[in-house]
Each structure stands twice: as structure tokens, then as C-alpha cells.
Amino acid sequence: MKKYLFCISGILLMATFAKAQTSNYRVVFDMSSKDSVNQQAVIREIGLITGSSPDAKLEVVIYGLGLDLALKDRSTQQSAIQKIIADNKASFKVCAITMSRNHIDKSQLVPGIEVVPDGIYEIISKQQEGWGYIKVAH
To answer: What domains lie within the chain, and their CATH numbers?
Structure first.
């Protein structure tokens, strides 16, 4: 009888673990770097995550020196960003405060990138909702 209960307990534990592995994969990426290596890295990470977890919810929050990633005349990742957005693999949000400080208006953004009032507040809000946090850096 003990062996039977032990086996049942093991099966239930494995089922719980398997469910935890597939539930609500949500990550917010903190992009405040002007470095093109970091900008390439976030694109690569999105591809890796969505390749293994297609239902993952991913958001890239751009602020500070990361602004170039969001600008259509400066971004080295514009086509990749547009494809990611079109394929609903991730959303890209840029900080309105950063835009204002740099005299940037929405027409200068890569199409599909959304504006949020405050990038840091956006990240904190996602964390409070239980999203994982990744600072994009190398």
C-alpha cells in the first residue's frame, strides 16, 4: 500500500511540475542600452524564447540610451522588430519621457512600437503582475 501511495504521489508531483513548466511564460526586457550588441541580443532572445515557448508573452521596454532601437532612422533592428510585432511574438514599448527629452515624436518610431508614459513604471507594473525581468546587457 505504501508503494502504491508513493507512486501516486510521484505521478501527481510530476504532473504539477509539468503544468508549471507550461504556464504563463511572461517576460519584460529592460532595454536602456545604445550598444548594438545588446540590441541584437534582445532580438535573439525573443527568437529563442518563442521558439521553445510559442505562447510566451514578451515585452521590450525601451528608454534612456536605448531609444535608437525604436527610431526608424537609427535602428539597426527595424525589420526584425517589425516582423516580431507582426507575428505577435512580442510587443515593444518606448518611454514618452525619453522621447520628450530627446525631442522625438511618434512619427519617428519604427512602425508598431507603442508609447508608454514612463518606461520604468511600465517595467515595475509588469513585475507586480508577476512578469519575469531581464536587463538586456552583455
So the answer is: 24-135 (3.40.1260.10)
